[in-house]
Each structure stands twice: as C-alpha cells, then as structure tokens.
Amino acid sequence: MKISPVQTDIFKESADLTAFIVHHIPSVADKTVLTVSSKLVCLWKGLSVPYESREQKENLIRQESDAALKTPLAWLTLKSGMIMTNAGIDESNADGKLLLLPRDLYACADELRAALKKAWNVQHLGVIITDSMILPLRAGVIGAAVSYSGFKGVKDLRGKPDIFGKKLDVTLVNMADSLAAACALTMGEADERRPLCVVEQAPVEFVDQTAPQEIKYPIENDLFTPLFKAAKLIK
Q1: Long-range contacts of 223-232, Cβ-Cβ distance < 8 Å, separation of 24 or more
Q2: How sure is the predictor about 80, in pLDDT bands with cuts at 50, 70 and 90?
C-alpha cells in the first residue's frame, strides 16, 4: 500500500471542491482511495459561522449533537451515530470561523466520489472524509473516517480460522478508520496544508453502493455503552 499526502493551496469557502481536487491531483489509477479532510467538506458546503464567544460555540455544540456531555477537556458528543468531541465543530485552520459538519456526511462522500470518478475517468474509486478523534485514556488525536464511499468499510473475519485453526467469533476489521488513521499521520494537524491523501493498492473491496450501517455497531453490544450510560450520555 502506498500513501501519498498532497499539499494544496488554501481552499476558499463554497468553491468547487471537485475542481480543487483535480487541480492538485490531475489523475489517479483505478482502485485508488482518496482521503479528504472534513474541513474541506465543511467549507465546500458553506457550513461556517463567525466565532463570537465560547458561549456561542457551546450552544452550537449542543444544537449539533444528539447528546452532549461537558468534560474537563471538551464536550463529549453523540452525532450521526458517532462519539466525537464538540460535535465535530472546529475553529483550527478556520480563519476566525467555526466549521460545522454536514448532517449527511455519507451523502457528501457519495456526491464527491461520483464527481471525481467522472473527472478522472475511473471505474473504481474510494473516498474517505476524515476528522480527528480522541481515544479513551489516550493522549493525542488520531484520524478517523466520519464517512466514506465506494468500498466496504468493514472486513468481516467471523468464522475465519486463526493460525491455530480456532474460528474467530467476533472479529471485524474497521477498514475505513484504519485507512483514515494511516493517512492522518502524513496529512498533519497544523499548518502543513495537506488536506488530501492518495492511497494506492489499499486492501479494500470496492463496491458501487456504500452501506453506512455496516460500520455502526449496535449500541446494546458496544464495549463502551456501560460507560456512556453511567455518564448519562446515552439512555
């Protein structure tokens, strides 16, 4: 697998994101996966508001969340079936604005993928929209896929044998977040200006129709559900 971050100009709000990407990446091979920073998608969709105050930001976080819990570091929120900080609202690299995530991130990924397939004249293409996430009891952020399109985001290994022939009972491999995390290492978090990353020979299965539900684990079986219930983040 080859991962290549792409340095770009500064993307202007409400500009043509497909044209911006193709300008910096004129062509790709078939069966490429492209990761795109969620900040570009927020700007593409014009989802920004001028930053006014901390109170304004906190009100927006609550409005954009299905559930929200204030912590010493940030707001722990539930949005679009994901646990994330501050409902994905960000003010870094936003030039005095707050950037809000689109409500339907998978529709954005599908739309961008369709436009890029046509522009690049490829049959198979994967698109991942990435954002920074925090793992419980771990310092620092990692990259995660807030949505994706064009490939199976989860690899099911249940029923497969391990090296000693024992069948796996519960093992699912999160392909989408794994690729997002790998790309985030090269894309950066500060002033690198590398909001795009090309992944060649990714070990994924390309599909025409993405199934977002595959990556959403049932809340009744989730490892962290007891913690979230205790914190009253979920019922």
Answers
A1: 224/83, 224/136, 227/136, 228/83, 231/69, 231/76, 232/69
A2: confident
